Amino acid sequence: PVYNVNQFLDRCLNSICTQTFSDIEIILVDDGSTDGSAEICDKFAALYPQIKVIHKENGGVSSARNIGMEFATGKYFNFLDSDDLLSSDTLANCFLFFEENYKKTNIVTFPMKFFDGRTGDHWMNYKFSKGSRIIDYTVEYDKTLVTSSASIFKADYIRKNSLTFDESL
Predict the structure, then answer these.
(1) pTM of the predicted model, to two decimals?
(2) Long-range contacts: 111-119, Cβ < 8 Å, 24+?
């Protein structure tokens, strides 16, 4: 989702476009930006063929994410916010974990770090203290860190269950 984030968008998109894992589809849903963000989206789409831009009337972040899912063709989904960054190997590591554990996993999450205004690890990263592993939500419900921007979701699971974001939120 993109809405009036021109001060962050270049940096965010550079962090995605320079991933060590490059077989990605990037869908930017401009949700009626008025600050030049739409033009930044178009500029990046002209430079990177894996980027698709959808311009729409403002409807909120959930609406933008739902539109993005309609156009997505990939095996996995992530809903990175425009003011977030990915480490260069984030997508490669998540892809490998998913592929090694495909039948046992519907969501892969990754730790977060602050940047700019705050620095260091996110306060919820203690949930990763046991390292990379599979968690059964029915047993360890308090050990999960599921945010749409720090998670990658199995697209087949989302589609099969007709999951969408609640646009009233």
Answers:
(1) 0.85
(2) 111/145, 111/150, 112/145, 112/147, 112/150, 115/85
